[in-house]
């Protein structure tokens, strides 16, 4: 096998995965749902005529109406509008932290698996230390120490899921570094960095992307947890977790204040899980039809 030949199977496998993903109806539904959620959050100013920060105390805790599609919160702000803008924050934090964790974690995992020896032991022991603490506790500690803002929340969530990517990337790297095309690259004098980036990373990308879609949902849940306990993005910026917390005191007389943003979190997490399950079925040969 030549080095040029390694790209053709990769393209073929990618096309095969796309075909298999399209056959999975639930995965297609999840992808459609997630796409609509993203588009709704992007075009929020054009979808809702209200401002997410405008308060009208006279209209507080109103149920659904022609003017307020999902009612209003404790300050008379339009719940539907705030959900759309809150989705922006949740998606930006969740997807950004997952992408950073994927890049950094996979890089560390590939380096550990490829180099082996003390490098492998050092990297993986650090990852094991991070995994030893519950992810939510780790996120709480980082945000509490550094302060609650967008950057620190992204950093906290990135640190909590980074070790998972490192462990996933390390195992296949150990097997791939003994393959013929990697040996050929070494014989041609290619550097270790090029071998890891060009010949190993693309071959583990499929499995990593599947897990990234699942852990993106987890990252969004973590952001909602942090916001719910007051360690999210500072008010008055709308976030789904903050909206759920604000309506908690009125859960008996106006439950819709918390239910609607909670349902929005559910839809985002469900859509990402459906996409991840479809990609997993497409990649795993034991689950193919």
Automatic annotation (TrEMBL):
The keyword DNA repair does not apply. The chain crosses the membrane at residues 26-47, 91-114, 196-218, 224-244, 256-276. Keywords: Cell membrane, Membrane, Peptide transport, Protein transport, Transmembrane, Transmembrane helix, Transport. It is a multi-pass membrane protein. GO terms for cellular component: plasma membrane. It is found in: Cell membrane. One of its GO terms (biological process) is transmembrane transport. Coiled coil: none annotated. Residues 87-276 form the ABC transmembrane type-1 domain. InterPro entries: BP-dependent_transpt_permease, MetI-like, MetI-like_sf, OppC_N. CDD domains: TM_PBP2. SUPFAM superfamilies: MetI-like. Its main location: membrane. Belongs to the binding-protein-dependent transport system permease family. This is Peptide/nickel transport system permease protein. The lineage of its organism: Bacteria, Pseudomonadati, Pseudomonadota, Alphaproteobacteria, Rhodobacterales.
């Amino acid at each position: 096998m030549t080095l040029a030949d390694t790209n053709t199977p990769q393209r073929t496998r990618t096309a095969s995965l796309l075909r298999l993903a399209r056959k999975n109806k639930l995965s297609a539904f999840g992808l459609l749902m997630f796409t609509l959620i993203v588009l709704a959050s992007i075009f929020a100013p054009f979808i809702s005529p209200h401002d997410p920060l405008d308060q009208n105390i006279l209209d507080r805790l109103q149920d659904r109406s022609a003017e307020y599609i999902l009612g209003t919160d404790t300050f008379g702000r339009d719940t539907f509008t705030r959900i759309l803008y809150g989705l922006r924050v949740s998606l930006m934090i969740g997807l950004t932290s997952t992408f950073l964790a994927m890049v950094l974690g996979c890089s560390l995992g590939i380096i550990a698996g490829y180099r082996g020896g003390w490098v492998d032991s050092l990297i993986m022991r650090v990852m094991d230390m991070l995994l030893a603490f519950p992810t939510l506790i780790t996120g709480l500690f980082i945000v509490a120490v550094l302060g609650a803002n967008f950057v620190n929340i992204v950093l906290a969530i990135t640190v909590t899921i980074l070790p998972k990517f490192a462990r996933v990337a390390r195992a296949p790297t150990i097997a791939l570094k003994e393959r013929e095309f990697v040996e050929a690259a070494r014989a041609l004098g290619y550097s270790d960095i090029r071998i890891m980036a060009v010949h190993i990373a693309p071959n583990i990308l499929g499995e990593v992307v599947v897990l990234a879609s699942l852990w993106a949902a987890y990252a969004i849940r973590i952001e909602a947890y942090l916001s719910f306990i007051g360690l999210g993005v500072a008010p008055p910026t709308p976030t789904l977790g903050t909206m759920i917390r604000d309506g908690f005191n009125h859960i008996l007389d106006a439950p819709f204040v918390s239910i609607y943003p909670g349902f929005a979190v559910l839809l985002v997490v469900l859509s990402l899980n459906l996409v991840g399950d479809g990609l997993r079925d497409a990649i795993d040969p034991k689950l193919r039809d």
